[in-house]
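Q: I'm writing up a methods section and want to include an example of the input and output format. Could you take the sequence below and give the corresponding predicted structure tokens, formatted cleanly so I can copy it straight into the document?
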Amino acid sequence: MNISQVAARCGLSAKSIRDYERAGLIHPLRQVNGYRHYSEHDLATLCFIRHAREVNFSLTQIAQLLQLRNNPNRASADVKTLVGEHIAVLSQKIDQLTAMKTTLQQWHQQCLGNDHAECAIINHLNQCG
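A: Here is the clean output for your methods example:
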């Protein structure tokens, strides 16, 4: 398969596929003319990467997951540990985003939103410390 065929089948852009190759996550064969040739294994790997990116795994984490995926002697505990660490980071981000949202909602409610220059949102952003 060429890159446009594999992109259509796995739901990724050609640019993303090239980026994943540069990151060392996939290794398509190079034909004599220099074009990449993707196998069914490459397609499966790209689908795996797409799913991993959908749940916000980093490229480093994806590389670790791929190593585990490709290791028939892996321990599922290793996979579970990696995912548990990721869940903890996501929970922390959710807490931070929730706090930001609460702050912005408060500022939004305090702003009169009229034709006057006075704006509670700008006042809050101007505060030091």
